[in-house]
Design brief:
heterodimer, A: six-stranded mixed β-sheet, six-stranded mixed β-sheet, 17 helices, 36% helix, flat, B: alpha/beta, seven-stranded mixed β-sheet, seven-stranded parallel β-sheet, 35% helix
Chain lengths: 470, 799
């Protein structure tokens, strides 16, 4: 039986009230949800109307506070749901296969004065669930996104409290028919015109008022006319338009004079047990461009930390030690983590690591301003997709993978599907190669003589290390 | 010293000299005390140091004082040390020499010094650099804090032998501790300077940060010795232990030399012949001679007599006024003429301040009127006399200000000019309080859970928590904190294996070292700068609601905007200069009491301590003139919602019969004949007065501000069912102060009783010097001095 996946987007009424039509379009286009759930305290009929207008007609709409929209059991893309505005809607009887109960009936309360956390509404909810048979995942719009826990036998997942309101991210939950939930987020302030470089709320307003209501219009606009607008000078106009062009054409645009490293890159992506990692259990390596050879260095035994890293360094020092190592967000994560792991578990490679040339395309393009990347966000998967890369696997999230490994570390009961994670990592690292190629292609066009690219000594990249330090 | 080359005869440099010579003397001298001189107890450096170092020390600073030698001896024995002696007793040399010793034994060894402020850090860096150079040692001392340029940081971490920072830095840098690996691994000494300043909420944060630091140092194989340098406090061993989490040996016998000194206790004349029996708080204030004027007159008198004098005030405004008054007084003085006097405070420009320091030092000024900015550190040479306007809050500050006077072996004089304030008056009645041995305790309440929980989270991010960490984090409490955070989705795992952090990056950045809740208001000034830490919601509501006037760092501010919107609530202020203050009216209730400790005193009297919920609603405020108490406008609503504070309280329960007893004793009449209003006035007034009195005099016991406490009294409380009064910590989670009151109830109640009984205000409504409190939410209504004394007497009888 194939895996069904239904995507549920949660959103606060506040976001729908304040966002421009383009922003709402972007949000829907990015997540492409099968169902949209309102997250709020009060019924929001106007927000529901907006959704009815803007979402494709087959989209399932639900307002847990107002009970509007759909209600009760519903199957979406092969996944079972129950939309429950009240306890009375909670299913009774026997249920086959994992079912998602969606409501706003559960809330998290953390009381640091008494050192207790509690799930508010648990008792009434449990009572309603008494005598019901089956496997359930309980999604509540009053729980924060990424929240997952077990409370007295209830598997509880956060729907994204206040999603899209203020600075909180918009949330989409990929609910799979095997009971697994992946959480994806999207910043609400980078939608519509604000997705463009150098455009914040006030410039977005200026542009809209001048008639440039979409990115496409800006992409095709006369740069000089843009520069005449209040608060927008010649340089900014150029950047804005370049950004618009990039987004609509799906290519990389060079905006700086930084050089890419010499030599054929070794692409690397690591999987750990979280953002503050204690173990790097998979080092995925791609050798030879987007269609090159993928080598996973895997560490299934949590008690042997450092194995994967040591194996990787053994291969690297023997086969590729003079080639640059490339990782997306390397300077924000991967390189730091690897350095620590080497120091802690295989210090014999410390010198070799110190000598490697490390390159991070994200930092080079976005932080240092050398290029504008296509895609609605600068996330690797979005950039790669905009460049035409299509993933093999239905994607996982780093958070889900880390979570799974942590579960394995804790109880050693069900062994994770290692191959799946290897393939997920492979996807990432091939996507990285695609992005890198695009950067190279754009550099060749931009550079004058195409020769003598920076040989990339250690200090060139290390010079920016201070940005990452405290 | 402006004209003569020699001081004239009958120079008033003694208390009695003042008595004899002050023009228009009105019996202000209440007490005179002579503190005899003390010679140094010197120790040859070779007794505690190796010969090479001893020779170098002898050449540069000479002999060591006894306490320095003893501290070094204890350190050599492997102990941690707290040096609790007065300022200018050379505490810095203790740790400087320990660093030197460590360096000679192992040139790779490092030391981490934590100072309370960035300014002090840079001053000390210079001093230490100079000292090490004198000793002929090649040691790099660097400051590493928020002001250190980012391109120098890596180098300092990798090269410096000694790094000076502050606790805000220590907290944040733990988040990237792998960058500090080499420095931490070689760390052999941890120094916490001015450790007595770590009390209250800030003290809690410092204490948990130290534990997190020691834990990470341990993970790098380092277990440094600890040196705390502290002013004299009542409980140095206990405080150091709470601060560091480990045993510390106290060295407090001061071997440094002191000159002879006279201290005069001076009471400005009060003309209360015009006051009504039911005079208000403000009327009392108005009747007293402004202590700043009184002090300034003294300054003028001393200055004109050739005695160079430093006058300390409590605010910048008074420093400036003081200077003005002194010049005026000098003009009116029989000796007549010009007085060279300048004000000094942190609000003046750097150039101006340097200029004043220089002029004073070189004798061009007769006097300086200053805030406590000149209390220590800054070199102005020595003065002949100091004048204190009001008690500066702690005995340590008192002695610091007094100690500024003294030139060679000439007599030094200090004058304490009392304000119309309970503590000041108490000190006039009982000078032994400041002159005696005992000093306030410094309290760190480690039981506060919200603060604890924040640090547990940060610690988990720094390195996964294991069962071994119970040692650093208070045993089983760690399990509860882990369970809470795990349920909240921020931690995963369990202590038997490991607990890892799964929340958003850098939890250290969320910790505010001065706050105990996660809602902190940023304070910004519209017409200038203000250097103020973010404020907890409780304090923001109480002191910084829209329209409130408050003092900070000696300057006055008005709150012009109060914005509660999350995630960044803020308070906008404007610097102002008014003669007003704001009085805020509140409603308060106490409920959900959980008794943790209780003493049954018999006869229906009980003393209890525990936790509870205090609901406080700051409803209205009013601006009033300081001297007349007149209000320009009526009550203004604050627009605030009630606050719910879960905190610690101490309370006294009394028997039902107390009501009748008090009413009869005070009125001499049958209680049944009294009106409800009279009952409230007298009996209610007695309980209320007991509550106020104890709150106001607790700072004599503990290093704290009375704003850290709140109270409530009632003839019948819902929970206790009897006449009671409560004193609670004013911060979510508690501060440890109410617990201290519970433990020290007897001296606190006794002092309160004495003050009220001895107060010579007329009538029974009390006065600011006994039971009136500027922070009373009820506008000081229902206070009765006689009833208060009776109530406290009955309590004291049973303690």
């Amino acid at each position: 039986m194939s895996l069904g996946t239904a995507r549920l987007a949660t959103v606060a009424a506040e976001f729908l009230q304040q966002a421009t039509a383009t922003a709402v379009e972007d949000w829907l286009a990015y997540f492409d949800p099968d169902a949209v759930v309102l997250a709020g305290d009060d019924p929001a009929p106007r927000a529901m109307n907006t959704l009815r207008r803007q979402c494709p007609p087959e989209t399932v709409l639900f307002d847990p506070a107002g009970g509007e929209g759909t209600r009760g059991p519903r199957e979406i893309e092969g996944v079972q749901f129950v939309f429950a505005p009240t306890h009375g809607d909670i299913p009774g009887g026997e249920w086959d296969g994992p079912t998602y109960v969606v409501s706003d009936l559960l809330e998290l309360s953390v009381d640091t004065t008494t050192l207790t956390s509690s799930l508010v509404g648990k008792d009434a909810y449990s009572d309603a669930m008494a005598g019901v048979d089956g496997e359930f995942v309980h999604v509540s719009t009053r729980l924060p996104a990424e929240y997952r826990n077990q409370w007295d036998g209830l598997t509880v997942v956060g729907g994204g409290d206040g999603a899209g309101a203020g600075e909180r991210p918009l949330v989409a939950l990929e609910c799979r028919s095997d009971g697994c939930v992946l959480t994806r987020t999207l910043r609400p302030d980078r939608l519509g015109l604000q997705a463009l470089d150098r455009v914040g709320p006030s410039r977005a307003r200026t542009l809209r008022e001048a008639g440039y209501r979409s990115r496409e219009l800006i992409a095709g606009a006369d740069r000089a006319r843009l520069a005449e607008l209040p608060g927008i000078g010649a340089n900014t106009a150029a950047r804005i338009q370049q950004s618009a062009e990039t987004m609509s054409r799906g290519t990389v645009a060079r905006t700086g004079t930084g050089r890419l490293p010499d030599g054929e890159p070794v692409f690397v992506d690591i999987e750990t047990d979280g953002l503050s990692p204690t173990i790097t259990w998979l080092v995925g390596v791609l050798d030879g461009g987007p269609d090159g050879r993928y080598m996973p260095f895997l560490q299934t035994d949590p008690d042997e930390p450092g194995r994967a890293v040591a194996d990787f360094m053994a291969w690297y020092t023997a086969n590729a030690s003079h080639r640059p190592l490339v990782a997306y967000h390397g300077w924000g994560f991967d390189f730091e983590v690897l350095r620590g792991a080497i120091r802690d578990h295989c210090p014999r490679y410390e010198d070799a690591w110190g000598r490697t040339y490390r390159f991070d395309p994200y930092q080079w393009a976005v932080t240092e301003g050398n290029a504008v990347l296509p895609g609605r966000t600068n996330r690797l998967e979005d950039v790669a997709r905009a460049l035409g890369y299509e993933r093999e696997e239905p994607a996982l999230t780093g958070a889900a993978v880390a979570r799974r490994y942590r579960g394995w570390m804790a109880d050693r009961e069900t062994e994770p599907a290692w191959e799946r994670f290897e393939r997920y990592c492979e996807d990432d690292v091939r996507a990285l190669a695609v992005v890198y190629d695009a950067l190279e292609a754009s550099s060749r066009i931009a550079s004058d003589d195409g020769t003598d690219r920076a040989s990339g000594t250690e200090t060139t990249t290390q010079g920016t290390l201070s940005e990452w330090e405290r | 010293m402006s004209q003569e080359s020699e001081p004239p005869d009958h120079t008033p440099t003694t208390a009695h000299g003042l008595e004899r010579t002050v023009p228009g003397y009105e019996d202000q001298l209440v007490h005179a005390e002579t503190v005899p001189a003390e010679t140094a107890t010197a120790v040859d450096p070779s007794e505690v140091l190796g010969s090479r170092l001893a020779d170098a020390v002898r050449e540069s600073i000479g002999d060591l004082y006894a306490h320095q030698a003893r501290a070094l001896e204890r350190l050599a024995a492997g102990e941690n040390v707290c040096v609790a002696t007065s300022t200018a007793s050379g505490k810095t040399y203790v740790y400087a020499l320990q660093i030197a010793r460590n360096h000679l034994a192992d040139p790779e060894s490092t030391a981490l010094l934590v100072y309370p402020t960035k300014a002090l850090s840079r001053d000390q860096q210079q001093e230490l650099d100079d000292f090490f150079e004198q000793l002929g040692l090649d040691l790099t001392v660097e400051v590493y804090d928020g002001d250190t340029p980012s391109d120098r940081r890596k180098r300092i971490r990798e090269r410096a032998d000694v790094i000076i920072t502050n606790f805000a830095g220590v907290n944040v840098y733990l988040g990237t501790h792998t960058n500090w690996r080499s420095f931490y691994a070689a760390c052999e000494l941890l120094v916490i300077d001015e450790s007595h300043t770590y009390t209250g909420v800030h003290g809690m944060h410092a204490a948990w940060t130290v534990r997190r630091l020691r834990r990470i140092l341990d993970s790098y194989g380092s277990e440094p010795q600890i040196v705390c340098t502290s002013a004299t406090i009542g409980n140095p061993a206990d405080h150091s232990r709470r601060l560091t989490g480990t045993a510390v040996t106290v060295v407090d016998e001061d071997g440094s030399p002191r000159g002879k000194r006279e201290i005069a206790f001076w009471k400005p004349p009060v003309d209360d012949s015009q006051l009504d029996e039911d005079a208000t708080f403000e009327a009392f204030r108005a009747a007293g001679t402004n202590p700043v004027r009184e002090a300034s007159s003294l300054l003028a008198h001393l200055g004109r007599s050739g005695v160079q004098t430093l006058l300390f005030t409590r605010s910048r405004k008074n420093a400036e006024l003081g200077s003005k008054y002194a010049a005026e007084a000098a003009n009116r003085h029989p000796d007549g003429g010009y007085l060279a006097v300048e004000p000094y405070h942190a609000g003046l420009g750097k150039e101006t301040r340097r200029g004043t320091e220089y002029e004073f030092k070189t004798g061009q000024l007769d006097g300086v009127t200053s805030t406590n900015a000149l209390e220590l550190g800054i070199d102005i040479g020595s003065v002949d006399a100091t004048i204190l306007t009001g008690y500066p809050g702690t005995r340590q500050s008192f002695w610091q200000q007094v100690g500024r006077s003294g030139r060679g072996d000439a007599d030094a004089l200090s004058v304490f000019v009392a304000r119309a304030d309970a503590i000041d008056q108490f000190i006039l009645d009982n000078p032994g309080y400041v002159l005696g041995e005992a000093v306030e305790d410094a309290v760190i309440g480690l039981a506060n859970n919200p603060v604890y929980a924040e640090h547990v989270l940060a610690a988990a991010e720094e390195a996964p928590l294991t069962a071994a960490d119970r040692e650093y984090f208070d045993g089983e409490r760690l399990d509860r904190a882990v369970a809470m955070w795990r349920d909240a989705g921020k931690l995963a795992g369990d202590l038997s294996r490991s607990v890892r952090y799964t929340g958003s990056p850098r939890p250290q950045a969320d910790i505010s070292l001065y706050g105990s809740s996660d809602i902190q208001f940023e304070v910004t000034c519209r017409n200038g700068g203000i250097d103020m830490e973010p404020v907890d919601r409780e304090r923001a509501y109480r002191d910084h609601h829209e329209g409130a006037l408050f003092l900070h760092d000696g300057a006055q501010y008005e709150v012009v905007e109060f914005d509660e919107s999350l995630p960044n609530p803020s308070i906008t202020v404007e610097e102002v200069r008014t003669d007003e203050y704001t009085e805020t009216i509140s409603e308060k209730t106490v409920r959900d009491l959980d008794v943790e400790q209780r003493r049954d005193l018999g006869d229906g009297y009980r003393l209890a301590w525990g936790t509870g919920t205090v609901d406080i609603h700051y409803t209205h405020y009013q601006r009033k003139e300081i001297t007349t108490g007149e209000a320009e406008m009526g009550l203004q609503p604050t627009g605030l919602d009630p606050i719910e504070l879960r905190t610690e309280l101490v309370w006294v329960e009394t028997p039902e019969g107390l009501r009748g007893e008090i009413l009869e004793t005070v009125t001499g009449e049958d209680p049944g004949t009294l009106t409800e209003r009279e009952v409230m006035d007298i009996f209610g007034g007695g309980l209320h007065g007991a509550e106020h009195g104890m709150i106001k005099l607790t700072p004599l016991e503990l290093r704290m501000d009375k704003a850290d406490l709140g109270g409530l009294s009632t003839p019948r409380h819902e929970a206790t069912g009897c006449p009671s009064w409560f004193i609670h910590d004013a911060v979510e989670g508690g501060l440890g102060f109410s617990k201290r009151i519970y433990d020290r109830i007897e001296p606190i109640a006794r002092r309160s009783r004495e003050r009220v009984a001895a107060c010579d205000c007329s009538g029974t409504g009390g006065c600011p010097a006994c039971i009136m409190d500027s922070q009373c939410g009820n506008r000081n209504q229902f206070l009765h001095t006689e009833a208060t004394v009776e109530v406290l007497d009955r309590l004291l009888q049973r303690l």
